[in-house]
Design a protein that fits this description.
- The termini are far apart.
- Helix 1 (2-24) packs parallel to helix 4 and helix 7 crosses helix 8.
- The chain has eight helices and no strands.
- It is globular, with a radius of gyration of 15 Å.
- The chain is mostly helical.
């Protein structure tokens, strides 16, 4: 059982860190550490869930959102993105457009199907106010979005 947790952590840690750091800056490292500590303590429960990746992603997303509310977003565009869209859609936009993940990679990370990921992105594209459409552009070198 511990081996499975270690493999899951190794497989997802870097992506979780990239996501959290974009959302809350350097605080993301501590948040991800706390999430993995919690997952390790609850690993049997995680494995009994319908989808361990979805269970873990919901925990990560909730913890990052709490850190964001406590101290503010690392970027104003993200504040607007998460204010304008449901969290799942905003996460899909962040993973796909800002972190450059494919539909499949983003869906796997969130524990959802590729078709659900595509639907989140489509709904987000239709719902975003025009002033937030810059969030959908690829990152430019030297910006927060461009750092990995």
């Amino acid at each position: 059982m511990l081996l499975g947790y270690c493999a899951f952590r190794q497989m997802h840690r870097d992506s979780y860190l990239r996501y959290a750091r974009v959302r809350v800056g350097d605080r993301g490292t501590a948040v991800v550490g706390d999430v993995f500590d919690s997952l390790g303590c609850r690993w049997p429960e995680v494995l009994r869930s319908a989808c361990p990746a979805a269970f873990s992603w919901r925990l990560l997303s909730r913890c990052v959102s709490e850190a964001d509310r406590a101290t503010g977003a690392a970027d104003e565009g993200l504040e607007g993105l998460y204010g304008a869209l449901p969290a799942e859609q905003a996460d899909a936009v962040l993973l796909h457009y800002r972190l450059g993940m494919t539909l499949t990679a983003g869906a796997d990370l969130m524990g959802i199907g590729s078709s659900v990921m595509a639907a989140h992105l489509l709904m987000a594209e239709r719902s975003l106010p025009r002033w937030l459409s810059t969030v959908l552009r690829p990152p430019e070198a030297g910006t927060l979005w461009g750092r990995r």
